[in-house]
Structure formats: structure tokens, C-alpha cells
Write a structure and sequence with these properties.
MFS_trans_sf; elongated; 3 domains; five-stranded antiparallel β-sheet; Growth Hormone, Chain: A; disulfide bond; four-stranded antiparallel β-sheet; Solute carrier organic anion transporter family member; alpha+beta; membrane; 11 helices; single chain; 19% strand
Length: 445
């Protein structure tokens, strides 16, 4: 509903439609529109490409945010890793898809079949990403209680004020996380109850602050009591630990496997781009190809490029557990996410769109296969009918193919005889007239 009332969005779609109608439309627009709307392979492959582009647009937009929240990397490092993985894998996948098309000399049905295989394999690889991730960091008062707050409810709103920082009068309008010596991340040094601060160099370049005498940070001390027969070690819990600026490091080693799987998914997904484009071009009439591509462009902008980041962002926001409060009572940016929920929502939405893509490309392949079967059966009846003037006879023939050559705009029959000789016949009388929108089919009998 928000998109329907979004004036800039509607203006962009209107401009796209006007561009298509003014520059790429054929002379008879109603007839061309009707021809494309009744062309099942074209419609299915267009919807398949729309679903794939929705995944690509929405998924890649939020990969850096996912890396930040899931693995604790910095924003600059997350963007660098995204570019290093996505760009080579996408480029390599497109090149491989084009090479396979040229090497195997795939026809229309073969291109659809290759697109189907690529979509299924990429969906399976995407499913493995559900298992690659990290846990949510421990944040005092948000995901775990303060040590002096035993009655902690995870379902209740965040309670960053406890007995240990009650008199500190801490503000919650600025998120300055610190890592305590107890392994817990605190909202700020104030919420950790710290009284003293010193600065030091971290890794020789970055200056960090060390806050000490923190009343909320527990410290476990070990006291040893020696007797004549035994040595007793007693652990005592006291407060007054220290914290340093920044969140606590996640003890998680799944970043490298995630990047590897992301590379594979992107690579396989892009392998289907060239075959899908071939299916689009060869499933419509030659004079309608510019118009068909223009309609696809409008469809991509309307259903993929513009709305995908919007509903991806809205879905991911439901995993937020700590929002920035604004002065007017609204929510600002999300400070912390539930890592597990984020992962399942993020990959679940992507997997759902990919499953729809698999369904549409499967429908494309089925429609091409069914139309090819009907076309060849009709061609066989005409080839064996002496009244059509054909010189072709099944006698002495082991098998034959009936196909339509798009570049030559003619029908060709390939005959394999018992002695292994191959001959070709290409008179138009051998095959029936082609139906609108069906330009290239091949079948083996």
C-alpha cells in the first residue's frame, strides 16, 4: 500500500512505460502486447528473472549489515569483503554461462533446462547458509541480566538500570558499547558503573579507553587455603572489574565458510543469466524482441529493483532488539539485532524468492517441452503424408530431428540412415506453420 501511494515510485514506473512505448514499441502495440501476454514461455522466464533480481538486489544490499551484526566486523571491512566476494563470482558466473551455451550449442529448450539446473543448485547452496552464523552477543540488561539482577525477563523491555548503576543517572540516547572483563558487553561505561578511565594504544594505532573500578562488572577471585592435608581453592565473586571500548569479540569462526558459500551461490546464480536471456529473445518473434526486453525492464524496476530493498529492510527490522530512541518517541536506527533471528529471516526470504524462481523456470521448461512435442508431432504427420509433396520417407531411416532455425527462418529436418549417413531437408512444406511466440524447438524421436 505504501508503494501505491509513493509518488516518486509511481513517477519512475510511468517514465519507464513511456520510454518503452515511445522508443521500442512496434507499430501495432495492442497486437504486440496481446502476443506477449499469451506467450507462456516469455511470461514465465520474465517472472523467473524478476524473482532472481529481487534476491540479488535485496540480498546484496544487506550483506554488509549482515556481516557487521553476525560476525562483528567493522563497516569498512564488511563492504570490502562484500565487493571482493560478489564481483568476481558474478563476473565468473556470467562468463561460464556464456561459454557453456556456446560450447554445448544449446537450443531454446536446452537453455531453459540449464537455467532450471542452475536455479535448483543455487537454492540448495543457499539453504546451507542457514547453518553458518554466530550467536547474539551478551549485552547486560538486554540479553542477559546484570549480576545483581536475578529476576530477569528476556521478554520484558530492556532494563539497563540496575542497583549497581542506579545512582549514575545514565542516558540511553547514545550507544557506546564497552566490553567487560567478565565477557559481557555493556551499553556504555556509565551503565557498567565505572568510576575511572585511562587511555592506551590498541594494536599500535587505535586509541581505546580502559575504564576501571566498574561496580557492575563481576570479578571472580580465587583464594587458596592450605591445611596440613589438603589445599582448598575458594572462588569469590566481587565487583570492580574493568571494561574497554568496543563490543566483546565473538568467539565464532564461521566467517570464512560463509564467504565461501556466498561465492558459490553468487557464481551459480549468475551462470543462468545468459541462458535466461537467450530464452527471452528466442521465445518471441524477431520484430517483438525490443518491445519484449522493454516490458521486462519495466517489470524488473516495478517488482525487483525498487521494492526488494524495501521489504528486505522491513523484514530484517523485525529482528532488531535495541532501537535508537528519538526525541519525538519514534525509533531511529537499529543498534543491535538478534543474530539468529536475523539469519533465518534474511536467508528465509531469499530462499522463498529463489523457490519461486525455480517454479517459474520449471514452468518455462515444461511449456517449451510441451509446445515442442506438439509441433514435432504435427511435423511428423506432414512428413509422412505423400500429399504434401515431400520426398522424405521413414524407410531406411533410424531417426530424425525436426527443428526451426531462427537465423535462417526455415525448418530443417535431419535424417540419420541405417548406414550412418546424415542428410538434411529444409523445405518449408515439411513442417506446419509456427505458432506465434514459438520460434525454436527441437525434439528427438
Amino acid at each position: 500500500m505504501s508503494l501505491c501511494t509513493n509518488v516518486p515510485y509511481l513517477c519512475i514506473i510511468l517514465i519507464d512505460c513511456l520510454f518503452v512505448c515511445l522508443f521500442v514499441c512496434p507499430t501495432d502495440i495492442p497486437h504486440a502486447v496481446m502476443s506477449l501476454c499469451t506467450n507462456v514461455p516469455y511470461l514465465c522466464i520474465s517472472l523467473c528473472a524478476t524473482m532472481e533480481l529481487s534476491v540479488v538486489t535485496g540480498f546484496i544490499t544487506f550483506v554488509p549489515k549482515f556481516l557487521e551484526s553476525q560476525f562483528g566486523v567493522s563497516a569498512s571491512e564488511a563492504n570490502l569483503l562484500t565487493g571482493v566476494v560478489i564481483i568476481p563470482s558474478a563476473g565468473g558466473g556470467i562468463l561460464l554461462g556464456g561459454y557453456i551455451m556456446n560450447r554445448l550449442k544449446l537450443d531454446l529448450k536446452g537453455a531453459a533446462q540449464w537455467s532450471l539446473v542452475s536455479a535448483v543448485v543455487s537454492l540448495i547452496c543457499l539453504a546451507t547458509l542457514f547453518t553458518v552464523g554466530c550467536h547474539t552477543i551478551n549485552i547486560g540488561g538486554l540479553t542477559i541480566p546484570y549480576s545483581d539482577s536475578p529476576n530477569f525477563d528476556h521478554q520484558a523491555p530492556s532494563e539497563f538500570t540496575a542497583n549497581c548503576n542506579l545512582h549514575c543517572d545514565c542516558a540511553i540516547h547514545s550507544y557506546s558499547p564497552v566490553c567487560g572483563s567478565d565477557g559481557i558487553t555493556y551499553f556504555s561505561p556509565c551503565h557498567a558503573g565505572c568510576h575511572k578511565v585511562t587511555n592506551f594504544l590498541w594494536d599500535g594505532q587505535t586509541t581505546k579507553y580502559n575504564y576501571t573500578d566498574c561496580s557492575c562488572v563481576a570479578v571472580v577471585s580465587v583464594e587458596t587455603i592450605n591445611t596440613k592435608k589438603y589445599r582448598i581453592e575458594e572462588q569469590k565473586l566481587r565487583y570492580g572489574g574493568h571494561v574497554i571500548t568496543g563490543k566483546c569479540h565473538r568467539d565464532c569462526g564461521t566467517l570464512a565458510p560463509f564467504l565461501v558459500f556466498l561465492f558459490i551461490v553468487t557464481f551459480i546464480t549468475c551462470c543462468a543469466q545468459v541462458p535466461a536471456m537467450m530464452v527471452t529473445l528466442r521465445s518471441v518473434k524477431k520484430e517483438e524482441r525490443p518491445f519484449a526486453l522493454g516490458i521486462q525492464f519495466v517489470l524488473f524496476r516495478t517488482l525487483a529493483y525498487i521494492p526488494a530493498p524495501i521489504y528486505y529492510g522491513a523484514t530484517i527490522d523485525t529482528a532488531c532488539i535495541l532501537w535508537q530512541p528519538l526525541c519525538n518517541g519514534d525509533k531511529g536506527a537499529c543498534w543491535e539485532y538478534d543474530a539468529t533471528r536475523f539469519r533465518f529471516l534474511y536467508f528465509g526470504l531469499s530462499a522463498g524468492l529463489k523457490a519461486m524462481s525455480v517454479l517459474f523456470v520449471f514452468m518455462t521448461w515444461i511449456s517449451l517441452r510441451r509446445a515442442a512435442t506438439e509441433y514435432v508431432e504435427d511435423a511428423e504427420n506432414r512428413n509422412t503424408d505423400p500429399s504434401n509433396g515431400s520426398t522424405f520417407s521413414e524407410e531406411g531411416a533410424v531417426g530424425y530431428d525436426v527443428s526451426y532455425d531462427v537465423s535462417l527462418d526455415e525448418t530443417r529436418t535431419t535424417i540419420l540412415s541405417e548406414d550412418g549417413n546424415i542428410s538434411f531437408q529444409s523445405p518449408r512444406s515439411l513442417c506446419p506453420p509456427l505458432q506465434d511466440g514459438i520460434l525454436a524447438y527441437e525434439s528427438h524421436v
